[in-house]
């Protein structure tokens, strides 16, 4: 299936500009429509007995949040090339609902594009990644906080562990992999496997049947799988990584698995994920 419909989360500031540049470049290269969605947070008093002054404070905070989104949209609109069709969606919601609202919107698009945010301070952006990956049911491209420049699609590294999320990620990324000049299918060696099982061969054959010639690379066992994958991606010169994103519901919170958490906190290149 071709990529025709993209969603990008609008952020304010430098990180937002990097995500916008990546998203606009991806839309240009794929010929896709690009929708920009901004979250305007609604601030509500804690109880019904707050005085008028408190209500004014909360109303001002809501207005400021909306103004930040509108400013981010101006940056987006100014940067959009004439050949990319775009539109804008404003999501006004409470902070505790923002993640799910964005994820639900993402169900209507082929891919959501979300900035990593500053992993040391940006809890809100972390929630947007959660919503895009675990709520939408669709793939997400996460753009690193330090990313500079347009989307590069020439060298892809696809991570394969035989799981359903990894299969969904590769399937979702197939149109991008078909455009790549080099694709490596990378897996972490499992000491318990028999050599004659040729792990990864079936997936390289599947890719070949879709016109993607992928070389199979097996890495040695690692305690920190996420760190090992990121290290190899840097050494191999990959432009982006394709991998399954692992997470689950724990009581009322969405929780990422260990490798996924490592990737999202330490990533230095864009990562295409599916859950």
Task: Indicate the radius of gyration in whole angstroms.
Answer: 20 Å
Beta-strand percentage range: 15-25%
- Strand arrangement in the largest pleated sheet: 3-2-1-4-5-12-9-6-7-8
Low-confidence stretches: none
Instruction: Count the DSSP helices.
Output: 8
Count of extended strands: 12
| CATH homologous superfamily title of the largest domain | HUPs
How much is the average pLDDT? 88
The succession of helices and strands, N to C, reads EHEHEHEHEEHEHEHEEEHE
CATH topology of the largest domain, anyone? Answer: Rossmann fold
Question: Structural class per helix/strand content?
Answer: alpha/beta
CATH class of the largest domain: Alpha Beta
Largest sheet properties: 10 strands, mixed
Distance between the termini: 18 Å
Helix content range:
40-55%
Give the count of structural domains.
Answer: 2
Question: What shape does the CA trace take?
Answer: globular
CATH arch. level architecture of the largest domain: 3-Layer(aba) Sandwich
